[in-house]
Write a structure and sequence with these properties.
It is a single chain. The chain is of the alpha/beta class. The protein has one domain: NAD(P)-binding Rossmann-like Domain (Rossmann fold, 3-Layer(aba) Sandwich). Strands 3-2-1-4-5-6-7 form a seven-stranded parallel sheet, with helices on both faces. The chain is globular. The protein is built from eight helices and seven strands, in the order βαβαβαβαβαβαβαα.
């Protein structure tokens, strides 16, 4: 679809990949990008930079009332980028309770699903529309060191495929971005080379324009998929060895 002249919404749009998406969509010609953020003040930098083409919207995707309010307010959007995510860094069994795992599932799976459900009727008003779900290489390969995060991204990837099928008849393309190591606050403890958020956003805009179902956005994501196809058991062993030494794959 053509991005020029559209209205879009980016969740978690005030920093990292989300902030890069806001800039990339404006650069691609979007007339308005709603910056979804829990605190409106966090979007002030983008408003100062982009003027009235960046519109802050108070949005916690785990809050059903805020999601519904956003769908009413942002009733002109034809592009939704589900970028907001949570990563606690806790493993499944060593965590003191289930709170972290539930938080990651609520934010990384139920939150984007809630957004898809709320905005499907809004997107249906346009001849062409798009949803982009920002996922993770941890949704391709189980990463024990990312105990709650990895399963939540597996669920989100499956959800993306299901929603794609459900929305095909109304002309809404649904894309998954598989993200590996990116230079964001969430990946601050990751050692080694990291992709820039701007390059991830560029892949996302291309997916919107071309209607691409799934994109591996960086070297780590590409290598993880290749390794999974070549030797899944060796990759499983490699991920297991990462327990206790901070191996991390994700946005």
């Amino acid at each position: 679809m053509d991005v020029d002249g559209t209205a879009a919404l980016v969740t978690g749009g005030n920093r990292g990949i989300g902030e890069a998406f806001v800039r990339a969509l404006v650069a691609a010609g979007a007339a308005r990008v709603y910056v979804g953020t829990r605190d409106i003040a966090n979007a002030e930098v983008l408003v100062a930079e982009l003027g009235d083409r960046a519109v802050p919207v108070r949005l916690d995707i785990t809050d059903a009332a805020q999601v519904a309010a956003a769908a009413r307010r942002c009733s002109d959007v034809s592009i939704v980028v589900n970028n907001a995510g949570a990563f606690t860094g806790l493993t499944l069994l060593e965590a003191p309770d289930m709170v972290a795992a539930r938080e990651e599932m609520e934010t990384n799976y139920f939150g984007p699903l809630s957004m898809c459900r709320a905005f499907a009727p809004v997107l249906a008003r346009h001849p062409q529309s798009a949803i982009v779900n920002v996922l993770s290489a941890g949704g391709l390969v189980a990463v024990p060191a990312m105990g709650g995060y990895s399963p939540s991204k597996f669920a989100a990837r499956a959800m993306t495929t299901c929603v794609r099928a459900e929305l095909a008849s109304q002309g809404t393309a649904v894309s998954a971005l598989i993200v590996g190591s990116v230079d964001t606050r969430m990946a601050a403890d990751v050692v080694g080379w990291k992709e820039t958020p701007a390059n991830i956003a560029a892949h996302g805009v291309r997916a919107i324009r071309k209607g691409i179902d799934e994109v591996d956005t960086d070297l780590m994501a590409i290598e993880m998929r290749a390794h999974l196809a070549r030797d899944p058991k060796e990759l499983e062993a490699q991920m297991r060895r990462g327990l206790g030494r901070g191996l991390s794959t994700g946005r």
